[in-house]
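Q: Give me a backbone?
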Amino acid sequence: MTREPSRLTNAAIRQYAERVGEHHEIYDRAGTADLHDLVRRLGGRLAIGDSKESLHVNAPGDFVIYLPRLTSSRRDRFTIAHELGHYFLHYLHPGSETAASFGRGERNPVETQANVFASSLLMPERVFREAWRLKDGDVHALARQFEVSPAAVAVRAQVLGLS
């Protein structure tokens, strides 16, 4: 089933993701997001197995994020945030109430929007800009702080005009 992209702009998606994180108080003092707690509080759960990265929503407040067995914790964090992007942008925001599934792998506007959401949820702009300044743009140090890949940090820095 082809999903319709959210009508939100990328800027609005970034703000929405940060508001979700702030509302649910998922950030520690360093700005690292506790995604496991967020998933639990939203009524979801994580499942690790032989399946591809995906999200299956049974109903609002009842969903499963599937993670493959052989990926790093940093990759898993981005996947969780990405699937939460689908949950908020492409399930809750349009007001869906029936079962739905979302899988990763395609390149399309819906997947791009989920990536924008994930990046902003994991690396909120204000905290990221300050960390970038304090760490002199050290991508590896920032990746450790936000528990994401150096590539995710590099993309976030580029989007924010820091590199």
